[in-house]
C-alpha cells in the first residue's frame, strides 16, 4: 500500500536543496518531452511527489511554497484530511456505475450542498460534469433550451475553457485559440468594466462600461435573440479583473428585464476563494445559473451547473450528462472539501490572506513603479506590471522575469492577463501565515533585483 505522506502532515517549510528544476526533475522532463504532446505546457517543470497545506515537494527533495493551488483548485490544501478520508472510503466501495445507469447518493448530496451554498433562496437544481469547460458548455445548452434563443454574450478579457464552444467564448487568442478555429457561431463579445484601464478613470468605469455593453447587445444582436450572458464575477485568466462597482448589477438587471439567462462563471472565483462562498455575493448578485469546478472537490475532477429549477429542467431527459459526470469518488471529495471549508472557516482565512497580501504588496508598490495595480479579493490577488505608471504600458517582460526569479527561490507563482503582464497569487486557503510572508519576502526580493 502506498504510504499516505502528503496532505496537511507534510512539513510546512520551504526547502531548496538543488537548482530548480533539480537533476531528477530534468531527467523526467526529458522523458516527458519525448512522449507528452508539446501543446501541453507547464509553468514550472519540477515533478511533484507530495503536496499539502502550503507546500509542494519535488522529486529532488525541494519543498516549494505554493501560491498557485494548481490554478485555484486545492483551496483546502492538497490531500486534505476530509477529502482523503471520504474519497478513499468511496474508492473502496465502488469507483463508478455512471449516474445515468444506476445513481448513487453522493451525487445527490453534492447537488443539495450546491443548492444551499449558491446565492438566492429560490428552488435550485444542479447537473454535474468533469471539467469547467464542460460546465460552461452545458450552461449554454440549458440556457438555449430554456429561452429557445441562440446568441451568447461574453466579455473582453473573459476566459471560459479550451473546448470548441468555450474557445469561442474566451477572449484571448494566444495561446488558447490560435490555429484551432473555426469556432462555434452565435457568440458575441462586449466591453467589461476594467477600472485600471478605463479611459475616463475607474470611478466612471462601472456605469459607462455597462452602458456600452448594453448598447452593443441591443444594437448589434438584439436582446430578444440572446439566450445567455456569461461573465466571471472576478475575471481570472484575463488578469484578475474585478469589474468596477455597479457594472455587474446593471448587466444582471438588463438580463432580467429581457428574459436573458444570466450565468456567473465562478469556476475560478468560487468556493471561498475570494473570501465568500461565491464572488458574485459581493454585490448581492443572484445569478440564474452558476458554473463551478476548480475549488469544488479538493483536486478531483468535478464541475457543476447550478441554477433556477425551471431553467435547469428545460433540457429534455437524456439531454444532459456524460459517462463520468459526477463520478462518485469526485463527489465524495467535494463533500470532504465543503466539510473542510466550513470547519476551518476558509472564507475568513481567505480574507486574512487578502489583508496580509495587500498590506505587503502596497508597501512594495510604493518602492517599485513597475507595480501599476494591486487588485483581487481574498486569496485571489494579483499585481499588474507596467513600464511606466503614467502610460500604463503593459510590462510582460517584468511579469516573466519576476515569475522566473520566484520559481528559482522555491515559490510557485503564475502569470495571467490579456497582455501577459499580471502576476497572480492563489495560495491554498490553509497556508500558514509564516509561509505566506516568506513567499511575499521572495516577491519583494525579486522586485528589488528586477
Ligand atoms: C479554468 C476555468 C474554466 C475552465 O475549466 P477547466 O476545468 O480547465 O475546463 C472556465 N472558466 C473559468 C473562469 C476558469 O477559470
TrEMBL record:
Cofactors, names only: pyridoxal 5'-phosphate
BP GO annotations: gamma-aminobutyric acid metabolic process
Question: Which InterPro entries does the record match to this protein?
Answer: 4NH2But_aminotransferase_bac, Aminotrans_3, Aminotrans_3_PPA_site, Class-III_PLP-dep_AT, PyrdxlP-dep_Trfase, PyrdxlP-dep_Trfase_major, PyrdxlP-dep_Trfase_small
Q: Which pathway is this protein engaged in?
A: Amino-acid degradation; 4-aminobutanoate degradation
Q: Give me the reactions it catalyses.
A: 4-aminobutanoate + 2-oxoglutarate = succinate semialdehyde + L-glutamate; (S)-3-amino-2-methylpropanoate + 2-oxoglutarate = 2-methyl-3-oxopropanoate + L-glutamate
Q: What is its EC number?
A: 2.6.1.19, 2.6.1.22
The keyword Transferase appears for this protein = yes
Q: What class of enzyme is it?
A: transferase
GO terms for molecular function, please? (S)-3-amino-2-methylpropionate transaminase activity; 4-aminobutyrate:2-oxoglutarate transaminase activity; 5-aminovalerate transaminase activity; identical protein binding; pyridoxal phosphate binding
A single Pfam family it belongs to is Aminotran_3
Q: Which PROSITE patterns match?
A: AA_TRANSFER_CLASS_3
Q: Which UniProt keywords apply?
A: Aminotransferase, Pyridoxal phosphate, Transferase
Check the record and name the PANTHER family matching this protein. AMINOTRANSFERASE CLASS III (PTHR11986), LEUCINE_METHIONINE RACEMASE (PTHR11986:SF58)
Q: Which family does it belong to?
A: Belongs to the class-III pyridoxal-phosphate-dependent aminotransferase family.
Protein name per its UniProtKB record: 4-aminobutyrate aminotransferase
- Look up and give the organism this protein is from: Streptomyces palmae
Q: What is the lineage of its organism?
A: Bacteria, Bacillati, Actinomycetota, Actinomycetes, Kitasatosporales
Gene symbol of the encoding locus: gabT
